[in-house]
Design a protein that fits this description.
The structure is a homodimer. Chain A is α+β, with helices and mostly antiparallel strands. The first copy, chain A, is built from 2 helices and 4 strands; from the N terminus they run E-H-E-E-E-H. Chain A has a single domain (6-106), classed as Glutaredoxin. Helix content of chain A is 20%, strand content 16%. In chain A, strands 2-1-3-4 form a 4-stranded mixed β-sheet, covered by helices on one side. In chain A, a hairpin with a 3-residue loop joins strand 3 (66-69) and strand 4 (73-75). The longest helix of chain A is centred in the first third of the chain and has 14 residues, at 29-42. Chains A and B meet through strand 2 of A and strand 2 of B.
């Protein structure tokens, strides 16, 4: 079989409510993951696209966070109502949904301006 | 900051011991993830390479399973003793470790010859 055309990782990390940083599960990402699974299945794309739980993607201030590979497109503040657009426009149409993309300046840095705490 | 040069997802899914399919956590993948984290940190590559927990990658008969993006290289039966070679040869040197790669015929299929059960 060919490799997945897209592999969608949805952070479902859950911290204690008192933790210094937020966590995607507390922002509803488990329902988001189910919405991706359902939408991919309903579109008949199960063997082309996989939606996957992931542990912390370390972009916690932007949750729920999603990263799509192999193209390395990062999305933040994604909710179930956004899934159809991501599937139709990005995963099928090849056009990432710009309004949901994380800014490059927030990715892969301890100094994201949205990050208030260095704690876990 | 630039995107991660490599994003390493290590399946840490854990099923009950009586489940129809095996699961990577029961094959030791939590220690494997820690070994990747440590090796990446020790090599000074923390902002270039991220090791991440993932949920089930659905290659359960080949666990512990690892997939590296953006290049979509899949590895199976990976143990902590393999980590240094993957980091040095693949993630730094750009040469995937062929002896650990999953066969294309086992990926993304319900009919992998190693799969005994259709159950979860």
């Amino acid at each position: 079989m060919p490799l997945f055309e897209h592999h969608v990782f949805i952070c479902t990390n859950e911290r204690d409510e008192s933790a210094a940083r937020p966590s995607c599960a507390l922002e509803g990402s488990k329902k988001l993951k189910s919405a991706f699974k359902d939408a991919i299945k309903d579109a008949g794309l199960k063997h082309k696209i996989r939606a996957n739980d992931s542990g912390c993607l370390d972009q916690c201030e932007h949750g729920p966070v999603v990263v799509v590979y192999p193209e390395a497109v990062w999305y933040g503040n994604v909710h179930p109502g956004d899934v159809e657009e991501i599937v139709t426009e990005h995963l099928v149409g090849g056009r990432p949904v710009e309004r949901l993309r994380l800014a490059d300046s927030c990715l892969n840095t301890d100094h994201c301006p949205h990050r208030k705490s260095k704690g876990k």
